[in-house]
Structures are given as structure tokens and as C-alpha cells.
Design a protein that fits this description.
The structure holds 2 protein chains of 2 kinds. Chain A is an all-alpha fold. Chain A contains 16 helices and no strands. The radius of gyration of chain B is 18 Å and the shape is globular. The mean pLDDT of chain B is 92. The chains are: A mainly alpha, B alpha/beta. The interface between A and B is large, with 33 and 42 residues.
Chain lengths: 337, 252
């Protein structure tokens, strides 16, 4: 933080000729990596009671899901913020989360909870992820035209659709029987406790592929972050980069939401931690930072919620509480720099 | 040479650039003048492919701007608009180094670093190079952005109101810098400018626009007449010649 807030003054000639930030950034990436590793190891091995092998197996799946979701959410939010030119937005405002809840509600409403619960988890996963991806891509195609200069309209349309989905969900859920409604609640709360190993490997594979597709975009995103006009004058095809980035973001968010459910504030916290801790504009570094911070927040948060607070609360509640406060702080800072 | 042929741009029913055909020769400093809403900035943006034309073509040398890859144009022509909002927090040197992106794609060579250093020194920014942009005064910030354009090392440089927010001293200094770009580096510089006297004092060529059309062009001496200025700006303007340079007097 100190290096961000008080850069070297120009009075001393040494400060004018040497830039110490690359070394600072490297050190801090190493610290983030160490913290992420510690979080994973503590989660996996601390406070085991009962059968060792059962705990190891269960925890490995949980920690795997937490890592995948943390990385996917962190990277997706960071990239989304860059193309949306805002540090207080997350892909969540685009209505992905509410669409996920709506799809679950409609499934339970149309087929009944018995069918939905019996449905092969992989089928439900692919259905969820597929609907969300199709929604995202269609929305971009439709709203983000060639002559759009920013994502303003896209974000607004996303917010409105999100509200629409929520209203439809409320309407449909009123028509459910109480037992169906209970099943639905179970489906729509983010949960890491019972993660299907097959879904975990599918999600991990999707996340790896999506991030690999994003890597060649990262240098051009450094330029896109300078705004439409500067990006174009520097020869970057603004629309192509933004469209490809949105596609990656959609796939990442869809996969991780379909795996564990909506996690509103994780991305916001994680992407901003990366930007605040790492004083660089380079997305290669920032994306790595966001992925590591994602692991720290999800694994650490789940450890606090499940072990230290002994399941009296959930990760979602912890993260939303901390995330909400952080969000308010960000907004206040934006108002008075 | 920059050529436009029947260039047209409208926002809804309002035609902003109306059938503009013009040729800007290589070399020299061209000032585009005109009242607010005359279409100056839009013309510049369309030439630089920041805004898509509704009709007509733009050629930069032999390249059709609408049909050529953007990164090819970026090595030939640089443009700077006003008020650039960005998410990233950059130092002066980082910003200027972005000018090398069209050449090296973000992987800087020693040659790139040398050019960046030169651009910083040319605009007297070497002492400020590790400061963040948001810690600079308006004049320093403006110089940093123009230094990025210089680092881009293009034959053509288009600037939209480079004197915006500059006081008299910094405005004069910016104009001398732009003049030096033409004389020392042989660049073709096109600026949109409101202060007609700065245009007359520094430009080789003035292009006057009104209602989206070019209504007069030529060397300052031919534009700086009471009749032509009244035609461009729609109110009477006196012209006085001081030491051979014509000055428009319109303050009262």
C-alpha cells in the first residue's frame, strides 16, 4: 500500500532515474503465492478429527473446488473490470447469478424437485453452464455493436435483465410447494461442502482452457485499459479484444457458478486486492495476483466459516459481509479520492 | 499525404462532416479552425479511424484507413484526443512507453527504451518520469500524452486541441514543441485549435470548417483577413499585423 500511496518524490535524482516498483511487485506476488499455499495446506491438513483418509478425500475435493472457483472468479472479474472500465463492477451485475437462480427455479417448477434432484449432476451442470454462456454471448452480440465505444449500455442492459430474472424467479417460486421450495433453496446457495468430483474436473478443465485463451489477450488488455481512443490509436482492435475477453469472462463465470452457485462479492474483493497490492498496469501480473488472491479469499473464507466458526455461518455470508463493507469503502474512496 | 474523398459523418439527422474532400500535404503544421460544432474534432476522429465514417474514404499515403489493419495504420499515424479516462494508474514513463506498442507489442527492446527516453527528454519530462499521471499538473499531463504520440514515431500526428487547459506560457511552449516536431523530425502535424492567433503564429497551413464543410484553406496570411474570419466565425473580427504576423483581435 505504501508504495502505491507515496511514490518517490522527484526531489532526489536517484528516485527520478530508478523505478523500484518491479521489485516490489515481484516480492508481493511471491507473498500472495505463499499465502495461497498456506491457506490450501491449512485447509487440507488442520484440525482433522475422525477418519484421516475420509477427511483427506473430502477436503481435497472441497479445496479443489475452492481453488478453481477462486481462480476463475478472480481472473474473470479482473478482466471484466478492465473492459468495462470500472473497478466497482463485477460480471455479477450482468445478471449471471440471477439467471442461474432462475434456471434452477424453472427446473424445479416445471419438472418437480424429485426429477431435478435425481437428474445426473453432469446434465444439470452442462445445462446451467450452457444457458449462462449462451445468455452472455447473445447479450454481447446484441448490445455491444461495432460502433459502441464502451460497455456502458451493455452493463445497463445486464442490470435490467438481472432484475427481470430475479422477478421471474420470485414469481415462479411462489407457485412452488413448500418441499420443492426447500430443494430449490438447497440448489441455489453456494456450497462447497458436497462437490461432485466429476463436476470438479469438468469445471477445472473449462477454467484452464478459458484462462489459456485469455493469456494472449493480456498484453492487449493493458492497452484497452487506456480507453477506446487510445487503444485504437495504438493499433489494437478494441472490439475484437473486448469481445474475446467477454467470451472468456462468460465461460469462467458460467462454469464456476454452475459448480458451486452464486458468489457475489468474491470477485470484487479479489480483483481489487490484486490492483491495490500490485502497483502495475500489466494484466499478466494482475491476473496472476487476482487468481492467487481468489484462492486466499475462497479457501481462507471457507476455512473460517466451516472450521473456526464451526459451520454456524457459510462462506457466502462471510464473504458478502466483508465484501459489502469493502464495496462501500471503495465507493466512498471513488467519491473523495 | 492525407486525402479524404466525399467524407461524411452524421449523428442521427445532424450531419457533422458533410462531404469533405481534401488533401493535406506531407510535412508542415496544419491547423484546423472553426466555431464550436463545426465538425473539426469529428473530422480528425474519422481520419484517425476512431469514429467510423458513414460514407467516403480516407487515405493515409497509399493506405485506405477503413480497409487497412489497425496496427499498420498505428505505425503511420498517431492521434491524441482530449480527456482520456483510464482504469490503469500509470507513471509518465509507462504511458509514454505505450507509444511503442504498435512496434513491439508490449515486449520492449533496448531500441524502444531509447526512443521512450528521447521522447521524455524532448518534452522535458525526464525528472517526472516515475511520477503517476494523477500527480501532474494539467500542462505536464498534456505533455506526457503528446510525448507518447512522439514515441509512437509516426509520420503523421493528429492532435485534438492540444492547448486545452494550458496557460499562456505552457500553450506557447506546446506550440514550439509541435513546431519542432515538424522541423527537426520532419513530421506532418495536424491540430484542431481554437486560438486562431496561435494557429496564425505557428501553422504552415490553416483549414477552416463551418457546418461540417471546409470553407477556406491556405497559408495563415490568406485566412487571417477580416472578411474570411467573419465568414468562419460569424462575427466581425479585426486583424492587425505585428512584426509581419497577423493577429485577430476579438476580445471586445
Amino acid at each position: 500500500m505504501t508504495a502505491v500511496a507515496t511514490p518517490p518524490t522527484t526531489a532526489s535524482p536517484a528516485a527520478a532515474t530508478r523505478d523500484e516498483r518491479p521489485a516490489v511487485v515481484r516480492r508481493r506476488v511471491a507473498v500472495l503465492a505463499a499465502l495461497a499455499l498456506v491457506a490450501v495446506l491449512v485447509y487440507q491438513f488442520a484440525m482433522v478429527t475422525g477418519s484421516w483418509s475420509y477427511a483427506m478425500d473430502l477436503r481435497l475435493r472441497q479445496v479443489g473446488a475452492l481453488v478453481v472457483v477462486g481462480v476463475a472468479t478472480g481472473v474473470a472479474t479482473l478482466l471484466f473490470q478492465t473492459v468495462a472500465n470500472s473497478r466497482i463492477l463485477t460480471p455479477g451485475v450482468m445478471g449471471y447469478d440471477s439467471l442461474f437462480v432462475l434456471v434452477q427455479t424453472l427446473l424445479v417448477w416445471v419438472f418437480g424437485s424429485a426429477v431435478v434432484v435425481d437428474l445426473d449432476v453432469r446434465v444439470r451442470f452442462l445445462l446451467d453452464a450452457g444457458v449462462m454462456t449462451a445468455f452472455g454471448l447473445l447479450l454481447f452480440r446484441w448490445v455491444f455493436r461495432r460502433n459502441s465505444r464502451d460497455l456502458f449500455v451493455l452493463v445497463l442492459v445486464g442490470v435490467v435483465l438481472g432484475t427481470l430474472f430475479t422477478s421471474l424467479t420470485l414469481f415462479a417460486s411462489r407457485l412452488l410447494s413448500p418441499s420443492d421450495y426447500l430443494t430449490l433453496q438447497d440448489l441455489t446457495f453456494a456450497s462447497f461442502n458436497t462437490v461432485d468430483p466429476r463436476l470438479l474436473s469438468i469445471t477445472a478443465a473449462i477454467t484452464v482452457v478459458a484462462i489459456a485463451a485469455a493469456v494472449p489477450l493480456l498484453r492487449r488488455l493493458d492497452v484497452v485499459a487506456l480507453g477506446h481512443d487510445t487503444a485504437v490509436t495504438l493499433g489494437v482492435d478494441y472490439h475484437r479484444v473486448v469481445n474475446q475477453t467477454l467470451a472468456v469472462v462468460t465461460v469462467l463465470v458460467a462454469a464456476s457458478t454452475a459448480l458451486v452457485g452464486p458468489l457475489v462479492f468474491v470477485g470484487l474483493i479479489v480483483a481489487n486486492i490484486a490492483r491495490q497490492v500490485l502497483p502495475t498496469y500489466r494484466h499478466r501480473t494482475l491476473a496472476l495476483g487476482a487468481a492467487l488472491a481468489g484462492v486466499i479469499v475462497t479457501v481462507g473464507g471457507q476455512f473460517v466459516a466451516s472450521r473456526l466458526l464451526d459451520f454456524t455461518t457459510t462462506l457466502t455470508v462471510c464473504v458478502n459481509l466483508v465484501g459489502g463493507l469493502y464495496f462501500v469503502w471503495l465507493l466512498l474512496r471513488e467519491v473523495s479520492p | 499525404m492525407i486525402r479524404t474523398d466525399a467524407l461524411r459523418k452524421a449523428y442521427g439527422d445532424t450531419v457533422v462532416v458533410d462531404d469533405v474532400t481534401l488533401a493535406l500535404p506531407r510535412g508542415g503544421l496544419t491547423a484546423v479552425v472553426g466555431a464550436n460544432g463545426a465538425g473539426k474534432s469529428t473530422l480528425l476522429s474519422v481520419i484517425a479511424r476512431l469514429v467510423r465514417a458513414d460514407g467516403g474514404t480516407v487515405f493515409v499515403d497509399e493506405l485506405d484507413v477503413a480497409r487497412t489493419r489497425s496496427d499498420v495504420i498505428a505505425r503511420r499515424l498517431a492521434v491524441l484526443r482530449q480527456d482520456t479516462h483510464m482504469t490503469s494508474r500509470l507513471t509518465v514513463r509507462e504511458l509514454v512507453a505505450f507509444g511503442r506498442f504498435p512496434h513491439s507489442g508490449g515486449r520492449h527492446t533496448a531500441e524502444d527504451e531509447r526512443i521512450v527516453t528521447e521522447a521524455l527528454e524532448f518534452f522535458e519530462l525526464a525528472d517526472l518520469q516515475h511520477r503517476y499521471l494523477d500527480q501532474l499538473s494539467g500542462g505536464q499531463r498534456q505533455r506526457a500524452f503528446v510525448a507518447m504520440v512522439l514515441a509512437q514515431d509516426t509520420d503523421y500526428v493528429l492532435l485534438d486541441e492540444p492547448l486545452n487547459n494550458l496557460d499562456m506560457r505552457h500553450a506557447a511552449r506546446m506550440m514550439r514543441h509541435l513546431r519542432a516536431l515538424v522541423e527537426r523530425f520532419g513530421k506532418t502535424v495536424v491540430i484542431v485549435i481554437h486560438d486562431i492567433n496561435f494557429a496564425a503564429a505557428h501553422a504552415d497551413h490553416i483549414l477552416a470548417m463551418k457546418h461540417g464543410a471546409v470553407i477556406a484553406q491556405g497559408p495563415p496570411a490568406t485566412i487571417m483577413t477580416p472578411d474570411t474570419l467573419a465568414e468562419i466565425y460569424d462575427f466581425p473580427i479585426d486583424v492587425h499585423v505585428l512584426d509581419g504576423t497577423p493577429f485577430a483581435v476579438y476580445y471586445r
